[in-house]
Specification:
five-stranded mixed β-sheet; 4pyrrol_Mease; cobalamin biosynthesis; 249 residues; single chain; alpha/beta
C-alpha cells in the first residue's frame, strides 16, 4: 500500500490536477488539512473512505494515522494545499515514513504563487526585465531563516520575490527591501488566491504595507515584489520571433 502526498492546489476545488483527483478517488483513507483544503475536494473520495482532518493533529499523530492505514492495507491520500514541493511540511513526514518503511509517492499541485500570478494577470518572468523568481518567507520566532537567506541578502539580487506566510509582517518586508528595490517598485498581495473570497491588492513598496493593514490581510496570502509586475516596455521573446529558425521535427 502507498501514501500519496497530493497537492490540492491553491484553494479552488477544480484546480486539483486530473492525476490528483484520480488518486484521491482510489484511496480508502484521506488525511487533509481542514483549515486549508476545500471540503468540496472530499467528494472525490470513495463513499466509504475514512476522512481525517489533520488541522489539530501533531506530527506524531499524523504519522501514526499514515502508518496505521498502510498496515490495514489501504492506499492513503495525504492532501496538502498548494504544491508539496514548497512550504508544505511534507519533508518531515517523508522522513518518518522512510524510518517506518512505508512507501509513498508525490502528486504535484498548482502552487499558490502561480494562482496569484494568474489573479494579477502577469507573467512573472519578462524578457530583459526579470528572469528570476525567488520563493521565500520571512523569519519567525518558531522557524528562523538559514544564514544568507534573509530578505536583505536576497533583495540584493533585484529578482522578483514571492513571499509566503508573510502578510502579517508586511511592514518588516518593506523595511528590508526598500534599500534594494526602491519605494516605487511594484508590489502586490494576493489573499485566498483562486477562491470566491480572493482579494488582490496592488501598489508599490511605498504603500503596500498600509494596503495590507487596511484590508486586514494576515494569512493565506502571498506578497510579490518586483519590476516585472508592471513591465510594459520589453523586448518580445526569441521563442516566437520571426527571425528564429524553425525546422520540422
Amino acid at each position: 500500500m502507498t501514501v500519496y502526498f497530493i497537492g490540492a492546489g491553491p484553494g479552488a476545488a477544480d484546480l486539483i490536477t486530473v492525476r490528483g483527483a484520480r488518486t484521491l478517488a482510489s484511496c480508502g483513507v484521506c488525511l487533509y488539512a481542514g483549515s486549508l483544503v476545500p471540503r468540496e475536494l472530499l467528494a472525490e473520495c470513495p463513499p466509504d473512505a475514512r476522512l481525517v482532518d489533520t488541522a489539530r493533529l501533531d506530527l506524531d499523530t499524523i504519522t501514526a494515522e499514515l502508518v496505521r492505514a498502510h498496515g490495514e492495507g489501504h492506499d492513503v491520500a495525504r492532501l496538502h494545499s498548494g504544491d508539496p514541493s514548497v512550504f508544505s511540511a511534507v519533508a518531515e513526514q517523508m522522513r518518518r515514513l522512510d524510518a517506518a518503511g512505508v512507501p509513498y509517492e508525490v502528486v504535484p499541485g498548482v502552487p499558490a504563487f502561480a494562482a496569484a500570478a494568474a489573479a494579477l494577470k502577469r507573467e512573472l518572468t519578462v524578457p530583459t526585465v526579470g528572469q528570476t523568481v525567488i520563493l521565500t518567507r520571512v523569519a519567525q520566532q518558531a522557524t528562523p531563516m538559514p544564514e544568507g537567506e534573509d530578505l536583505a541578502t536576497l533583495g540584493r539580487s533585484g529578482a522578483l520575490l514571492v513571499l509566503h506566510l508573510a502578510a502579517r509582517y508586511a511592514d518588516r518586508v518593506v523595511e528590508e527591501l526598500l534599500p534594494h528595490y526602491g519605494a516605487d517598485c511594484p508590489a502586490a498581495v494576493v489573499a485566498m488566491a483562486s477562491r470566491p473570497e480572493e482579494l488582490v491588492l496592488r501598489g508599490t513598496l511605498a504603500d503596500i504595507a498600509a494596503r495590507v493593514k487596511e484590508a486586514g490581510v494576515v494569512r493565506t496570502a502571498v506578497i510579490i515584489v518586483g519590476r516585472t509586475l508592471a513591465a510594459t516596455q520589453f523586448r518580445d521573446s526569441h521563442l516566437y520571433s520571426a527571425d528564429r529558425e524553425r525546422h520540422d521535427c
